[in-house]
Amino acid sequence: MLVLAFDTATPAVTAALHDSDRVLSEHTTIDARRHGELLVPTIERVVREAGAALRDVTAIVAGSGPGPYTGLRVGLMTAQGLATTLGVPAYGICTLDAVAYGSGLAEPFLVATDARRKEVFWARYADMRTRLDGPFVDRPADVPVEGLPVVGAGAALYAEVLGKNDAPPYPYAGALAALAAERLAEGAPLGPPRPIYLRRPDAVVPGAPKRVTA
User: Fold this and answer.
1) pLDDT at 163
2) How much is the pTM?
3) Which residues contact 91 (CB under 8 A, 6 or more apart)?
């Protein structure tokens, strides 16, 4: 099994290759405005550094959000396109699950990522593998922390409310790939690469113009 994983639901444009035993290569660039420009070169880089070729990939996994509409769409469309081209399955995993897995925590905690608009996307976990509730989108003050540690970029951004934690802030693709490889090896069901949207996109189709009367 050779799993290619990537995520563009946060400012981290991240990709990794996993052979079911370990992460062979991983690369991440933090740039919230260049997901479309950076993702494919990042994929090409991790495949090359692993000494592999795209045709060797047996599964593709993309972070499915929640996240800003434009960046999230880049990763999911790339996953669908590559899967069709290579003739391999594509899966989606909640981006917050990747952050949780990367934390390595074995006790209850929350994950919070930046949702912009002074809000966070968040979910509750029993441990690094088990999501209990969520994902949701709320203002930081409305997140029911209840004394639990909070990991993710949202915790760092709103440390005065959520409490700062030293765990990795982003859903690094190495963690996403390792989580996917673990679930696939166990025969756990993985869904398709479909976006998790918790609110409508900013861009909407304009409505009919209003009538003007004299």
Assistant:
1) 86
2) 0.90
3) 59, 60, 61, 62, 180, 190, 191, 192, 193
